[in-house]
Please model this.
Amino acid sequence: MKDKRLVVFGYSGSIHVKKWVRSLAERGYNIRVISLGGDEISGIDIVRFKRQGKLSYFRHSAKAVRAAMEFKPDIIHVHYAGGYGIWGVRTKFHPLALSVWGSDVETLPKSFFYRRFIKSVLHNADIITATSASLKKSTINVLESTVSKTKVIPFGVMIPEKLSEFPEAEQISALYLKHLKSIYAPDILIQATAIVIKKYPSFKLTMCGDGSLKDELHNLVKQLEVETNIVFEGAVDHSKVYSLIQQHHFMVMPSLQEGFGVAAVEAFACSRAVVATNVGGIPEIVTDKQNGLLVEPNNIEALADAMGKIC
Model:
């Protein structure tokens, strides 16, 4: 694949996109990433456009297509069917690879035109990758004809160079490592934690991430009077993730939906168990009562009970 020219339509601020393009560059690919917003990636050719409201993808589509075709790619890879899919389809280029991420095919709005657009993106892709069998099923549910060209390629993670011992058992601690958004149910976790604290007063929960529920969650913690047990750390640089995981006894993933659940794999890489909901791709990673505990989503009592079992 040496000297192959690859255009990636995807968000350059995503840690996953960063890891993929760096890895491909190390394998000899000549890469251009075309992104709406995002970051610079050292050693990678990046073309970034400013966000200009909800129609940003449409407003920049002509420039994005031009930037892609000027690069004279051998392959175009679209990350996320919605948004970046607009640019991919408008290039009319083949081979066109598409990676679905989850919400782009699992939570489609009722809009007939948007659904039709997503189907068009899936139809135009020559190959589609999904990180779990569950996500592949969701893709096929949107457009049945994708069954033969949709492949499951799970996320991989690096193994940490060093593994630390578990923290002192006198104070059991758990880690939440997701965005503070409704789909990941951080409010359910806080309410479950309040129940756990009644039985284990020294229990600690660290919540990492940022998002639209930030203020609401801070208020909930105050309302439940668990400020001394629940700490908000905000967004965390990915380089610090393994160190953070190893400072805790287990990870909690109360998500209502997950295409894969890479945070669980990162926890396993650090020899930590996971308490998670039985949704999406999570049960393909977490095996109940073997490497973690699975509970039904949106169930405060069940989540609290599972966390209590580890305490």
User: Anything to note?
Assistant: The chain has two domains: 5-152, 173-310. Residues 186-199 form the longest helix (14 residues).
